[in-house]
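Let's practice the habit of predicting before peeking. Look at the sequence and jot down your guess about where helices and strands might fall. Then scroll down.
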Amino acid sequence: MTEQLESRQTLPTRDRIVHAATQLLTEGGRDAVTTRSVSSAAGVQPPTIYRLFGDMEGLLDAVGSYGFASYLRDKVEREHAVDPVDDLREGWDLHTEFGLANPALYTLIYGHPRPGVQRTAARDATEILRGLVHRVAAEGRLLVTEQQAADMIHNAGRGVTLGLIGTPPADRDRAMSDRVREAILAAVTTPPGGGTDTESGTPAEPASATRHAIALNAALPASDADLTPTERAMLSEWLGRIAASAH
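Done guessing? Here is the structure:
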């Protein structure tokens, strides 16, 4: 205990406060993280917290980013699967596993949504998800727009994870996450092989024009076609209309 205290005291003040708040959150939940408890655990005066973080919400946002850092690093640094849809599967599983291993932290980040307000950690995770969805779109395998796919996957994954967190461990149906994941992926992506299910050989839906419009829109920013900014904007709008026309 003495060694841990000495080690903590050698940290910069900001890091010491974040570490103390993270430990309090993990051990006692959101209600355990108060100005008094954090200042006492970190060995600082309460005004120091407000000087460095603005308010307790600022501190909690820093705690979320700190706790989420290793998870986000694993998502970014892991080797991409050959099939971009498999990347989405792995990302979903990493997300769920993180939530179940860190319920207090996950609930802090995702458990109390407010319109127009999103924790920094959640925004970072969303950007990574959008990158994974973009890979699928570029291969012509999205059935909905990139934004719709990202929103559907994000909201379903968050709901499943929070539901599992709220269920006693002995009663958790971990296979439910797999079932919901596959249902969502089936709703937003096509199988490999040009829209044909490689197992059954039956055509996948919907019409290929929608998928090709989404794919072309995804590839447009990297295209070296001789188009003016206005022409690119118009083409992107037209492609977006085609993509949305099937929904």
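How did you do? Residues 1-7, 195-207 have pLDDT under 50 and may be disordered.
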